[in-house]
Write a structure and sequence with these properties.
Elements: H1 7-14, E1 23-24, E2 27-28, E3 30-31, H2 42-55, H3 65-85, E4 93-96, H4 99-114, E5 120-124, H5 133-142, E6 145-149, H6 159-165, E7 170-176, H7 188-197, E8 202-205, H8 217-220, E9 224-228, E10 239-243, H9 245-250, E11 261-264, E12 269-271, H10 285-301, H11 303-321, E13 327-329, E14 339-344, H12 349-358, E15 361-362, E16 364-366, H13 371-376, E17 382-386, H14 393-410
Parallel strand pairs: 3-15, 5-6, 5-7, 7-8, 8-9
Antiparallel strand pairs: 1-2, 4-10, 9-10, 11-12, 13-14, 14-17, 16-17
The protein binds 4'-deoxy-4'-aminopyridoxal-5'-phosphate.
């Protein structure tokens, strides 16, 4: 059996994604913006459509047939996620709107439940805004302090600095698994081990991890893990917060409303058990069902093959990009996945993005919701190419050809 994907597999899998078959500005679409949103296979779209066509109904409420079908399909995704993350129980799987929503949920809940004046939260200098701003808001509310692990010139965290920041006031470490703007994969085992030695729980932002890497939350021993469906071939508007049961039981609910209660009187409300305590109101039923189909789809292909192929693609792209005059990588971490960021001397990333678009190539340009990373590397923005298992070396060759045109244009 092959340990990576072959051309023949990729051609077959690309047929699962109708959106990839189109032309943009008369050229075949080359989609290299997967870190922003990955594409959705037709089976996921079909599952969502089937829900609306055949059993659209609220969950956990009705005794009627449609509601039972909807509840079963919704809870089946919870089991799929439990297996996908290797969580200990379905009670540890909370459905959210996405990574941002999961972090806001925790920031709010941990803030009210755990944080006192003078406490500290540690994040890193490569976080997405969604793992900075919720903590800033919470720290301001609670009189707590945000501490930031610095990164080196290659875009890797400085471990000794992390050690120096951990102290008896630290209440949580919240850190990205894989950086969306630098492509760095963080040494999470070491980070989590060290934090745990000091009794500090760790939240992992897994938004850019789950599309590329097999995640085992028990093996990682993280206390919380969040990800978004739309970056792992699922729909938008849905994501997951995993939390160790002992922590989730300790924390107060985030939002109040239907489904998160056992009993309500005007005097007092008794909250529901996990995971429902954290799922107030009618959830995004259709997209939760779609997410389950997407996760089964990736698992069927296999993370060993996905990771091996994407790694091959990424290093092929890094090597070929070095041909471009004046190109400089932003982020040179040795352990990396998913995304490559670069700047080209005297050409603004937005101009690069616009010219590539005319060639049918979709990349991301801007600060990638990591403005502190741009400040650290003293650039206003970068161009980012990010990969999925359905990308090919031919597509990277097209990117390189188009970049040569950019250089000629600005010469
Ligand atoms: N964290 C990282 C590392 C990300 O890449 C993203 C999305 N770019 C997010 C968090 C936020 O994800 P979402 O917008 O799906 O909530």
């Amino acid at each position: 059996m092959n340990s990576t994907l072959q051309q023949i597999d990729i051609e077959k899998f690309r047929k699962d994604f109708p959106i990839l078959q189109q032309k943009v500005h008369g050229k075949p679409l080359v989609y290299l913006d997967n870190a922003a949103t990955s594409q959705t296979p037709k089976i996921v779209i079909d599952a969502i459509q089937e829900y609306y066509l055949k059993y659209n109904s609220n969950v956990h409420r009705g005794v009627h047939r449609l509601s039972q079908l909807a509840s079963e399909a919704y809870e089946e995704t919870r089991e799929i996620v439990q297996d996908f993350l290797n969580a200990n129980s379905v009670q540890e799987v909370i459905f959210t709107k996405g990574t941002t929503d999961g972090i806001n949920l925790l920031a709010s809940s941990i803030g009210r439940g755990l944080i006192r004046e003078g406490d500290e939260i540690i994040i890193s200098a490569m976080e997405h805004h969604s793992n900075i701003v919720p903590w800033q808001i919470m720290c301001e509310d609670r009189g707590a302090k945000l501490r930031v692990i610095p990164i080196n010139d290659d875009g890797e965290i400085i471990f000794e600095a992390f050690e120096g920041l951990l102290n008896e006031r630290t209440k949580l470490v919240s850190i990205v698994h894989t950086s969306n703007s630098l492509g760095t994969v963080n040494p999470l085992r070491e980070i989590i081990d060290l934090a745990h030695k000091k009794g500090v729980p760790v939240l992992v932002d897994g938004a850019q991890a789950v599309p590329h890497t097999k995640i085992d939350v028990q093996d990682l021993d993280c206390d919380f893990f969040v990800f978004s469906g739309h970056k792992v071939y699922g729909p938008t508007g849905v994501g997951v917060l995993y939390g160790k049961k002992a922590w989730l039981e300790k924390l107060p609910p985030y939002q109040g409303g239907g489904d998160m209660i056992l009993n309500v009187t005007f005097e007092k409300t008794k909250f529901n058990e996990l995971p429902y305590k954290f799922e107030a109101g009618t959830p995004n039923i259709a997209d939760v069902i779609g997410l389950g189909v997407a996760l089964n789809y990736v698992q069927k292909i296999g993370y060993d093959k996905i990771s091996a192929w994407e790694n091959e693609l990424m290093w092929y792209a890094r090597n070929r990009l070095q041909e471009i005059d004046g190109l400089r990588f932003i982020g040179n971490a040795k352990h990396r996945a998913g995304a490559i960021s670069f700047v080209i001397e005297n050409v603004h990333p937005h101009d690069i993005g616009t010219i590539l678009d005319r060639e049918g190539i979709a990349v991301r340009t801007g600060h990638h919701c990591t403005q502190p990373v741009m400040q650290r590397f003293k650039v206003p923005a970068t161009t980012r190419a990010s990969f999925a298992f359905y990308n090919t070396k031919e597509e990277i060759d097209q990117l390189i050809n188009a970049l040569h045109k950019v250089i000629e244009f600005f010469a």
